[in-house]
């Protein structure tokens, strides 16, 4: 059984059932589920998405298909687990640190005075 990860970047919550389990896909969150459940709910690896868009209530008539396909593009299905709390670009490995500020030093005879 293969696991996939579904990220809902669409504008509303998506809910659906598979094998007596209700799956909820909140906006902006990633949900882990089986490949079979993703196939049943979203038509994962199926070319024709009309049936799945209609079942999810994304489309109601044939005229809604272009709009529905745009919505389906915002639902990302991946076999790779997303990194948690990773808001950086994949190219950047760490947050840039601010330059260390050095306080000016003044010497008065044998005493060293540090500003601040």
Structural overview:
With 116 residues, the chain is of the alpha+beta class. The protein has a domain at 3-78. 19% of the residues lie in helices and 28% in strands. The protein is built from three helices and seven strands; from the N terminus they run ββββαααβββ. It has helices spanning 35-42, 50-55, 65-72; strands spanning 3-8, 14-18, 21-25, 30-34, 75-78, 105-108, 111-114. The strands form three sheets. A three-stranded antiparallel sheet has the order 4-1-5. Strands 2-3 form a two-stranded antiparallel ribbon. It is elongated, with a radius of gyration of 25 Å. The model is unreliable at 87-95 (pLDDT under 50).
- Give the overall silhouette: elongated
Mean pLDDT: 83
Number of strands: 7
Question: Which residues form runs of ≥5 with pLDDT under 50?
Answer: 87-95
Roughly how many Å is the radius of gyration?
A: 25 Å
Task: Give a brief description.
The chain is built from 3 helices and 7 strands; from the N terminus they run E-E-E-E-H-H-H-E-E-E. By secondary structure, the protein is of the alpha+beta class.
Write the layout of secondary structure elements.
Elements: E1 3-8, E2 14-18, E3 21-25, E4 30-34, H1 35-42, H2 50-55, H3 65-72, E5 75-78, E6 105-108, E7 111-114
Antiparallel strand pairs: 1-4, 1-5, 2-3, 6-7
